[in-house]
Amino acid sequence: MSARPHRIALVGAALLLLGTRVHGQTDYFNTDAGRPLTIEDAYALERRSIEIQGAPLRAERIRGGQYRWGIEPELSMGLFPRTQIEIGVPLVLVDQARQGTRRAGAAGIDLSVLHNLNRETSIPALAVGFGALLPAGSLGPRDPYGNAKVVMTRTFPAFRVHANAQATFGPRLSLPAGSPDPVGGNTLELSRWLAGVAVDRTLPLRSMLLAAELFARAPLVRGQPLEWNAGVGTRWQANVRWAMDAGIGRHLTGDDRGWYLTVGGAYALGWPWRPARR
Amino acid sequence: MRHMTDHSAMIPMRSIRRGISLLAALLATAALPVRAAHAQWSTVYEQFYLQAPHNWTFRTDYTHADRLFNAFDYGHAILYETLWTKPGAPASLLEERIYDRLVRGVLVRPPRNPLEEAAIEPMYARLAPEAKVMFDWAHILHRQLYDVLADERLDGAAKDREVARIIAYYKSRPDLAFSSKPKSMALMQEQPYSLAFRKTYPKFNGLIWGYHWLQIGLYEPLVTGRTREERQAGVRATVARFWQMLDDAPRHMPHQMPMTPAVAPAFAARYPEAGIIFDNLHSMHDVVSDILANPSVPRAAKRREIMRAARLFRDDSSYVMGSTAAWVRMSNHMGIENMGGPAVGFLPAMPTPSVTYGAVMTHDDRTGEMTGFRYGNATGGDHAAHGAPAAAAPAAGGAQPDHGAHAGHAMPTTGDSLARGAASLVARLLTDPVVRQRVLADSALHAAVVRAAQQLPEGERAAIHAALHADGGTHATPAARPAPAPGTPRR
Question: B51 at the A interface (CB within 8 A)?
Answer without folding.
Answer: yes
